[in-house]
Amino acid sequence: MLIASCPATDPELLSMIDAQQRELREADGGLDGQVTVTHQDIRYLVVVVDGRPVACGGLQALDPGTGEVKRMYVRPTHRGRGIGRHLLVALEELAFQAGHTRVCLETGTYLPAAIALYRSCGYAEIPVYGEYVDNPYSVCFAKWLPVAA
């Protein structure tokens, strides 16, 4: 397994983000909501297994101390193998290297596997924030990162 940086314009990354958005729409019953798929200020990572990208995630700075995990996705054929957990750790390392002391994220109440992953990785539920405030299906989490000695 290789985890590597990836440009926001990479076709494989865009394919996974599109698949993620389709799954989210299906999982939430097709609820309407404005979705911003890519941002130029998100730093993306891709997990490659046997030469094929199988997972992605991004990190966007919310403020100088806080990074937000965005677009976490593992292809269905590769779920249950710990890939999401490895990707999340890599995104936390990226946040730490960027000088963030905290990482936060949003997911949907209809994604119990994602919620379980975040909780098992040390994330605690926080009040919804930003663009998620008016979404009754949003649940947000945060984790404090270790401070460099």
Automatic annotation (TrEMBL):
InterPro entries according to UniProt? Acyl_CoA_acyltransferase (IPR016181), Bact_Acetyltransf (IPR050832), GNAT_dom (IPR000182)
Q: What SUPFAM superfamilies does this protein's entry cite? A: Acyl-CoA N-acyltransferases (Nat)
CDD domains, per this entry? NAT_SF
Q: Which residues form the N-acetyltransferase domain?
A: 1-146
Please indicate if the UniProt record lists Acyltransferase as a keyword: yes
Acyltransferase as UniProt keyword: yes
Q: Name one Pfam family in it.
A: Acetyltransf_1
UniProt KW keywords: Acyltransferase, Transferase
Q: Which protein is depicted?
A: GNAT family N-acetyltransferase
What organism is the protein native to? Micromonospora echinofusca
